[in-house]
Amino acid sequence: MTLSSDQSAQALAALGAAARLLYGDDPLHVRLHGFFDLLRETVHHRDARLTCWLQSARPGSARQQFYSADAWPYPWDDGLTRTVAREGVISRRVIGLGGDGAGGGLLPAVRAAYLGAPILWGGRLWGVLELRTDHADGLRAAADDLIAGLMPLLAAAIAEEGRHQLSLPSGERASDTPTGLTLSAPDKQRLAALNSSLDEAIDLHELLSLLLHRALEASGAEAGAVALVDHEQRELVLHTFEGFAEDIDVGLQSGPRQRWSLETGLGGQAAQGRRALLVRDVTVEPGMSGAGAGFRAELAAPILIGDRAEAVIILGSPRSDAFGEDELSFVRALCARATQPLSRAMHYQEAIEGALYLGQVFSSLPTGLALIDINGRVLRSNPSWEALWGLHGRARRESFHISLDLIAHLLPRLSEPLGLTEFCDRVLRSPSQDLMTTIHLLKPNQELEVRSVPTRDSNDRITGRLWAVSDVTRERESDRLKSEFVSIVSHELRTPLTSILGYTELLMSRDFAPEERQQFISTVYTEAERLSQLVEDLLGMSRIEAGKVKLNRWVMSLTNIAYELTKQLNTSLMNHRLLIDIQSELPPVYADRDKVKQIIFNLLTNAIKYSPGGGEIQLRIHEARPRDLPVNHPEGRWVVVSVRDQGIGIAPEDLPQIWERFYRVDNTNTRRIGGTGLGLSITRALVEMHGGQINVESVLGRGSRFFFTLPVANELARR
Ligand code: ADP
């Protein structure tokens, strides 16, 4: 900011008046009151404060603070003071005071202008002058030139005061503390005042922040940090810090939860050597990188638990004489006093983290878990528990009772209600036993495996039970499928093999008339074909499941395939009539020829197989009109192929299952007809690989219509 000639004259006058005032004979605080008033005439601040470090016989902060006479009730922010001291330049900010803001208590919220000026003179920092006013855009008149001009005057006054105090008798300086340390009287008072808050702080973060603040306050350091020692990694882990800029590269490193090796910096040395250390000027100390840019003095003290350092307090200052024996003793005493609270807070933290961790595991497990008290009431349950039983928040109701409420809730779905009741009864009668059962639920079908184990307290007394429930529907289903597979396959193998062996044995035993022989041989042939079909189906299924089937797609006509197939099937059509209805000018499809042939072949052979009384079988192929397609069918042009028979039909409850592997409708007809239950699942997989869909309509005893879609070849594919 530059000044007009009027303002310059005013500033010069203010400087002159300030010099006269500050060099007066009154005590420093009286002179400063006058100085603040004088400044107000030019700068129009609301209140002001001067923080300074008086020189003392030995290095150390000896910090003092002076306030303007009519100070505002809003507390000052020491953190801001430290920042100004560390940055070493005049700082202007708009700050929020009162309301919910820092330290404002019940005072109304105000947006204030703040100006902080470091008192630098002769290469050292003497203090910080701070001004505040209640207009956010105030303090403009405090031109940097004027402020800069005032700094040497203030520095001289502070230096003079220090010298003056030096010559005073030192009075009570130090005494032995119970920890064997020497503390000055004010430090002893400070530590005593801290006692109860240290004992109250049970939260680790709260405790470490408290320790840091007290250390900063007592030492007058501009910056400080507390790090925890990670003995396993041999590192310090930054826990809380103040006064370090976010972006500077410090031995401490910036940002929360940073780590650095125990081998670097004074903090590491203090932790390893298990004693407090002080370096007056890190810039001249060999091997010391310094806690941060611009820092000279550094102090580090470990907090020991047993004989291990578990945390370190590190303080830094740009003033090389910032710390002396007093500061060292105070921080050392603070650390000694912090041993017990730290140990307690670390245990507390561990317990909290353990509980949190367990809580996370509890809520994320796919197994449903519920802790039940001795009376059978649910104390706590995880989301899987509710989802598996379909409880939707009901279990959180306070008085959910494991047997009464659970049974009542599940009753409509229990296939055997007695099973669960008996299990709950057993649980009640044998409180110390691990018990297990499987519960079968209907609509939808679900098999749940339930385990109930007693829970105990630290005295081994039973406190209730932990119920764990897991959904085993799929496992049971695959077990069922496996055993079904073995029984179907062995039956399907045995039947043709028995006939083949029987007839060949017969043929070998003696001569038969030529017609008879021919009949036997053709039976052997049909049975061998059946065997080969079974092997084909099994291989086909396993190849599809392994994802090994690739389509070889071309633009192709379905008309040809239809005629080829009718020729092939002619021999199997005994008392059936096969009708073929193909749309004239049927558009070509984009498909794998062999696979499409296999699909239609499967449907036609099923139509023949499952209409043992004969009748009409219709194969119809036409382009779909939009209303022919099911609602969820992909859009575009499609050809529909349908196979209709007048056979045994399928009951509505069996319809959804016929597509499953090895599923066969269980009735006398199907049992007599024979089959593997694989054909339709292979067929569906092949249709879906083409992007189409397959469906069925059927009336029991009247017949069925299976129909599927294939994509019409688009212009691009046709070329
Ligand atoms: P498979 O014919 O070898 O038993 P599929 O997978 O081809 O096996 O068919 C599964 C079941 O669907 C059959 O067992 C049968 O019960 C029923 N099914 C299939 N097609 C028809 C049909 N056209 N008419 C009546 N039921 C059928």
Give a written overview of the molecule.
It is a single chain. This protein is α+β, with helices and mostly antiparallel strands and 719 residues long. It folds into 4 domains: 5-97 and 110-164, GAF domain (Beta-Lactamase), CATH 3.30.450.40; 185-244 and 255-354, Beta-Lactamase; 476-545, Signal transduction histidine kinase, dimerisation/phosphotransfer (DHp) domain (Helix Hairpins, Orthogonal Bundle); 550-717, Heat Shock Protein 90. Helices cover 41% and strands 24% of the residues. The protein is built from 18 helices and 25 strands. The strands form 6 sheets. Strands 10-9-8-13-12-11 form a 6-stranded antiparallel β-sheet, with helices on both faces. It has a 5-stranded antiparallel β-sheet with strand order 2-1-5-4-3, with helices on both faces. β14 (368-373) and β15 (378-381) form a beta hairpin. α1 packs antiparallel against α2 (28-43) and α14 crosses α15. The relative contact order is 0.05. Residues 167-181 and 247-256 have low confidence and may be disordered. It binds adenosine-5'-diphosphate (ADP).
